[in-house]
Amino acid sequence: MQQTYIRDLAAQAGQEVELRGWIYNFRSSGKLKFILLRDGTGIVQCVLSKKEVSDEIWQASEDLAQETSVVLRGKVNADDRAPGGFELWTSDLRVVGRAVDYPITPKEHGDAFLLDHRHLWIRSKRQHAILRVRHTLVQAIRDFFDGRGYTLIDAPIFTPAASEGTTTLFETDYFGEKAYLSQSGQLYMEPAAAAFGKVYCFGPTFRAEKSKTRKHLTEFWMVEPEVAFMELPELMELAEDFIVHLVTRALERNRADLEILERDLAKLEAVQKPFPRLHYNDAANTLKAKGVDFQYGNDFGAPDEEALVADYDRPIIVHRFPAAIKAFYMKPDPEDPSLSLSMDVLAPEGYGEIVGGSQREDDLEVLERKIREHNLPMSAFDWYVDVRRYGTFPHAGFGLGLERTVSWITGVRHVRETIPFPRLMHRLKP
Amino acid sequence: MQQTYIRDLAAQAGQEVELRGWIYNFRSSGKLKFILLRDGTGIVQCVLSKKEVSDEIWQASEDLAQETSVVLRGKVNADDRAPGGFELWTSDLRVVGRAVDYPITPKEHGDAFLLDHRHLWIRSKRQHAILRVRHTLVQAIRDFFDGRGYTLIDAPIFTPAASEGTTTLFETDYFGEKAYLSQSGQLYMEPAAAAFGKVYCFGPTFRAEKSKTRKHLTEFWMVEPEVAFMELPELMELAEDFIVHLVTRALERNRADLEILERDLAKLEAVQKPFPRLHYNDAANTLKAKGVDFQYGNDFGAPDEEALVADYDRPIIVHRFPAAIKAFYMKPDPEDPSLSLSMDVLAPEGYGEIVGGSQREDDLEVLERKIREHNLPMSAFDWYVDVRRYGTFPHAGFGLGLERTVSWITGVRHVRETIPFPRLMHRLKP
To answer: Taking the CB of residue B170, how many other CB atoms lie within 10 A of it?
Structure first.
């Protein structure tokens, strides 16, 4: 008999079906057993009555434990009182695999214990909900750019050079040479934009940061669009449209998951255009006015970000950061060359920076001077500067970190729960 | 004035538009210039007449070279004689960036030269066509699994252990520990299948193979579905459906690209269900009958694969390879335990193995014995065997290599052209 998935039960009301899955929970009341079965697509209550089944089947049911794998057959019964509106009147039960002393029980467990058991933890309702939202957002990211005529150009992971400093790079021996794991696909997106006009990459990126905050992973996914002939104001609009699209999609497709996570949906529904835009100078003044201990010229730390977003119900865009704290490839602001044509999007509610981007330096000589000033090896960037040598053009792009975005949208405070198998400074397993 | 993209010109017939892009080619006939402009979405002919424009604009047009970036304005004229059916009657031309001695000219270049200039090579028509097919296939891969209710579970890149031997692993220092770059997400997909039923991962994987064949990259993308309660026969059907879906999508969406690549479309149209299934023993006999020098018990080399697929017009599935040449986690064939419940899909026309998969060992004791027999460290797999400890279940999955699939579908013989920035044994740049 073919397997029916729990999410498809509505179409099978009144029919005999076979369900396959794992025991989520169960209770017994004398001659009746109520089994909560999960199969990855949902949870359904399966009712087993001693007088309706053989002794052998009843006996097998005595052996059930949390996470025992089973195959059940029975009739789908529509019942408004049942969770999900359907239950199974079980006529047959076969144990496939026993589960003795499953480590994750309904009681509370510590973080380290749960992370050590991540391969089992992902079976839980809450982790399910988070990872389903993640899946929706991955789809939404690709749909957004595919739907706007962007070409996907996967960036390489092995790179000979670093785009933003070398202290946070993972290094590997590459047949006798040194290779580094990519921190960003941007350097590759620029020549790709010269080839395809509008491009994006979306893949894992790596930072060997000795950071143990709730916003850092050593391995995380980033999407990076890059657009030929785009300048900073349009880039801010693109980021705005993109983020509204992501939030809208999650609200459309994952309302039930967000409810499991007890996310305040009103806070997500408020995420509409336009996002407030703050010039860096104004942001610095705002912090000063709020009495935050912030030094003009610095990047924002978590407390600064929290103070800045506190007045708004949606993401804010801070633009024109000091050139000195930004990467060499960012174009200076013609109105004040000490600033750069850069922008960050800060999520509301203190979830921090989710987007960083800029218009790129498109003048060959200026870019080469910047590379020298940053003490970067010109030989590593000869191909990159070719974008300016052969038909240069204004262009701009940004990167959005997937895990921080999932964290914000799900309302889950630590990014380690937003990726199936998180990699942290002291966590490489499972 | 807003930018119009060349692919959208049809909707602008008779209108004034602004195009932005690069000079693909041009010719002059006295007082007329015919400029082929490319903008990443297409190529259009732009006609410039000396008597219709100012001296300044005409002067600027004398300065054009291949890959000069320009902004053109003019009226869109429908003309059946023009390539693409439209041309631009140019009224304004502005040079944005010059291009002196662009290195890739219409003459022939050697492979090494083109690979050294990959960042520019991707501007060419042929590379465009290949990478657009790649994009379509990436979408098709995700759509296939998303549409069938699979949950995307991204596998980690950093792993503490190798799933298939350690000789071909890239290693990195991970805060004092050793970490390896993933060769496959499969070990992570199995616990994920216990959580979500049907899952897939799709991301870059790494092999430090000292191989210089046209089928090998050190970094390539792989999609890996894993399905709870699935056994080998259904796995073969899944692979078959999946591959037909991919080829159909490319034919639907990329016919023009495939024509640029001079792909024989009849060969792709022949890719229909059912794919022939060959038991390994029968495949070995076939090779013997064909006089191929093949030793029973070995894996197939390229000449063996070519001999096997020669009789068929579509992919073939070879199943039940000897257990000794397959990974420790594959389940033995109950009818002959020296064989495994494994399968490979071989592409037609000698493009080689594009899919490898198996039903997994689901018995805890057997799996632990296999790990010991393969001299693998049990401590690295304690979490993995938990899938069998807590509610074990039959399950199966496969991996499909993206670049080999693109290579086959586009008819491009070397995988290095099927990924934007290929990584080969001696190639890490650009």
So the answer is: 23
Q: How confident is the model at residue A162 (pLDDT cuts 50, 70, 90)?
A: low
Q: Is B352 helix (H, G, I), strand (E, B) or coil?
A: strand
Distance CA(A17)–CA(A3), nearest Å, equals: 7
Relative to beta strand B32-38, strand B16-29 is antiparallel
Closest to B164 (Cα-Cα) out of B356, B387, B16, B298: B356
How far is it, in rounded angstroms, from Cα A254 to Cα A137? Answer: 10
Q: A212 exposed, middle or buried (CB, 10 Å; 0-12, 13-18, 19+)?
A: exposed
How many angstroms separate the CA of residue B198 from the nearest CA in chain A?
8
CA A56 to chain centre: 47
Report domain extents, chain B.
6-97, 118-417
Kindly report each contact of residues A375-383 with a partner whose C-beta sits within 8 Å and lies 24 or more positions away, as own/partner: A376/A161, A376/A328, A377/A161, A380/A160, A380/A161, A381/A161, A381/A187, A383/A191, A383/B117, A383/B118, A383/B119, A383/B429, A383/B430
Looking at the DSSP bridge assignments, the partners of residue A247 are: none
> Quick one: tokens of B371?
């790990």
Distance CA A53, CA A48 (A): 8
Chain A's closest residue to B123, CA to CA, is: A195
Q: B118-417 has which fold?
A: BirA Bifunctional Protein; domain 2 (3.30.930)
Joined together, the tokens standing for residue A366 give 């200026």
Reduce the DSSP state of residue A99 to 3 states and report it. strand
Report the first-to-last Cα separation within chain B, whole angstroms: 35
* Nearest CA among B11, B180, B164 for reference residue B85: B11
Report the alpha-carbon distance of residue A331 to residue B157 in Å, rounded: 33
Contact with chain A for residue B175, Cβ under 8 A:
yes
Report chain A's C-alpha Rg in angstroms: 26
Nearest residue, CB atoms, B420 vs list A142, A160, A192: A192
Q: Which amino acid is at A305?
A: E
CA distance A279 to chain B (A): 25
d(CA B164, CA B328): 8
Report d(CA B274, CA B315) in Å as an integer: 9
What pTM was computed for the model? 0.97
Name the residue among A5, A197, A421 with its Cβ closest to that of B188. Answer: A421
CB A278 within 8 A of CB A318: yes
pLDDT digits (tens, 9 = 90+) for A192-225: 999 999 999 999 999 998 888 888 999 999 999 9
ipTM: 0.97
Q: Is A233 at the interface with chain B, CB within 8 A?
A: no
> pLDDT per residue over B284-301, tens digit each?
999 999 999 999 999 999
* Domain A6-97 coded CATH 2.40.50.140: yes
pLDDT band of A166, cuts 50, 70, 90: low
Q: How many CB atoms lie within 10 A of CB A198?
A: 24
